[in-house]
Amino acid sequence: MADTEPPDPTPANPPSAHPPASLNLLVAVLGLSCFASTISMRLVDPIVPLMAAGFDIGLTQIAMLVPVFTLSYAFGQPFIGPVADSFGKVRIIAIALAVLAFFQFLASLAPDFQSLALLRGLAGIAAGGIIPVAMAAVADRVTMASRQVALSRLLALMVTGQVCGSLMSGLIGDYAGWRMAFVAASVIAGVTSLMVFMLLKPRPKAVRSALDPASVLGRYREVLANPLAWRLCLLVMIESLAIFAIFPFAAELLQNRGAVGSAEAGMALAVFGVGGLAYTLIARPLVERLGPWHMAVTGGVIVAVVLITLALPLPRWTAPVLFGFYGFGFYLIHSTYQTQATELSATARSSAMAIFACSLFVGTALGPVSLAALRQVMALESTLLVYAGVLLVLGLVSGPMLRLQKTG
Predict the structure, then answer these.
(1) Helix (H) and strand (E) counts for the chain?
(2) Left if phi > 0, otherwise alpha if psi is -120 to 50, otherwise beta: which for 378?
(3) Which tens digits make up the pLDDT trace of 220-244?
(4) What pTM did the predictor assign?
């Protein structure tokens, strides 16, 4: 098949504002790769009670499988980014999917919690070679003016994976056991890896960066020389910490309201992804009418109101609705950060996205840990008010800190 990955951009070869048909194929296949990655990422959240019962340990200990995955994801980024810049983004994504499938399958056979935690960490490292690299590949081909809309196409399949991951995990967990949920995620990643290998061929004459310590450090120095990089990394770390702190405890929150089984928690978390998918469907008018500044502010207000409402003793059927708005608000903020991250470097985008993703997933990992610590001094519902305040402030300060545009 013809080469589907055009050359990396240089000052003399800027990205195209109107991607060709081959780029549409690239975005579709990379979107499926993101779909497979997010399924694995959100796999544990709805089945925490089932896994705790299976290993006969506490809910909080099982919930720590989430930061094990996300911290491994984060700490693998400084190595994966330069590798992708050097050996090709498509090739690294295909390999990462295959390795992810392998470790997910082994996790389904884990005899004890310690083995499962190790395999979950290894799966996190593999997953780190998919979404950030895919975003860098897309950003190489689209101008900044159109990039937030273009990335929303990739985001659509990514959040669909989040929907399916939570829903699939909860349903399979209730009816076939938590181990089969890992098997299903393994099969999806394996099939997607084959698709990438078959449909997206690396560029035979591509000029790539050298993979030696001096070149790698040089690319990171280039990215971090941009003062916005430090601010963006801090903001996305705080954002992910506050947003995802509740996820491993969602099943417990619903059980406190009378919910039964993991499927109900999976449904609520799946609707978070539906909210994100709703964002992708109206991304263009939102970007044009609100602009990045007001998108961040609006998103901060929405997620803060949702967390405050979740803290109230409302009927359990309200939880899925609230998680839908939670997802929509999150993607208003996060898509803005994500787009800014793609502009940190035009010549080392995988490395730039690696730094961004590392910050994102350090925050994601610390979220449940911070909530577990807060629970030592306050009730689960009360902790949500703390994160609501953090996210409200975050939305308000993002515009001036990142010098965002107020209009599209």
Answers:
(1) 17, 0
(2) beta
(3) 888 888 888 999 999 999 999 999 9
(4) 0.73
